[in-house]
Protein: Argininosuccinate lyase
Amino acid sequence: ELRKPWGGRFREATDRLVEEFTESVSFDRRLALHDIRGSLAHVKALQKAGLLTEEEAQRLSEGLKAIEREIREGRFKFRMELEDVHMNIERALFERIGPLAGKLHTGRSRNDQVATDFKLYLIDETRDILSLLKDLRQVLVAKAEAHLDVIMPGFTHLQHAQPVLFSHHLMAYYEMFTRDAERFREALKRLRISPLGSAALAGTPYPLDRELTAQELDFEKPAANSLDAVSDRDYALEFLFNSAIVMMHLSRLCEEVILWMSPEFGFIDLPDALCTGSSIMPQKKNPDVAELIRGKTGRVYGHLMALLTVLKGLPLTYNRDLQEDKEPVFDTADTVKRSLKLATLMVSGLKPRAARLRAAAEEGYTTATDLADYLVMKGIPFREAHEITGKIVAYAEEKGVKLWELSLEELRRFSESIEADVYEWLTVEGSVARRRTLGGTAPERVREAIASARRQLESE
Ligand code: ARG
Structure:
């Protein structure tokens, strides 16, 4: 029977079911290294406050570092009866250096300890995600640059709308993932505020230098209010929300990859290495990676809702409900990171089928807007031009031909303003080239967007 660190007032052993129900070490062991960093900083504050001699501080630190090595090498044995990662490490320290270990928890509570650990952990995960987002953005830009000559149909309502550059389409995703990176970077500001020194909820009588521990742990500053510091989980919610948006963007990209891979579209090919087959249908080559990323988006949304619901209605300050913050966040971090890696692989392996894309761009009267614009150029008000062009489209559709397959004489039946120069307005190349407004799909604009993305990526 193991004595609990909090066992002084208890006369009975903890019920086994209660132990199993309340433990968190099975998952919060993931915070072990962050916990040790936090403790090392706390030792410095204790020494500065005169609560530890230099020699004691040194023995505590060395003990903690030895445990750190055990953890890194996978030799550390976590025990469920010790409830959580914090008490496991404290007990290991006691077993290693004796009663001096009992001084470590002076002026500290697991409440400020766990909040500190969790923030340190999320800072690391955020930086990993930023770097994975950067990889994906880089691959998108490289793909866009490699296929600047490919024209595809742009869609609204999943109906052919206007021709666009395939590169322009890819660069739209570059923008989304750049915003996602901005959001994570912005959230770092609030992550980098140190709860350490808030103790259980009210602060502590010991003169702990919270600026010192904040600095030691690379936080920007200490949290201003001890009650808030131990009960705040906004930073975890922000992490989940920012992750949910990344997953939503990935899911939209994946949905397009899945559609584009179907023979009905036939817009792209994916390498065999990134697809899987069917156990019964020998001909199948399926985009399962894209489907799984799309599918995993659901669990990340679920985690966001789960934590929002846990926090709703919690009175200040710490409540054990807060222990439920970890699993959703851990699973989210794992899911987002793996999805980003796979999406990067997928984008870099994706091959546009240029001829098919171009043929598709010519289907569905995608240059009808250009015909209306031509009429505007000839002095006709746009609404009228729209009406005339609509009639021409209906006529062509009935005849089963493309707009440029109509003769000048046929076109002129709808408007006397139409002349021989109309035909340059009807090609998909011409349509794309004319969209030169800032942010438009004209090749020179897209080249500029690519160049500016490259500068941005280099500066990060
Ligand atoms: N395992 C706990 C958690 O994850 C640590 C804090 C426990 N504090 C307490 N007073 N029971 O939230």
Summary: Residues 24, 28, 84, 110-111, 114, 318, 320, 322-323 surround arginine (CB under 6 Å).
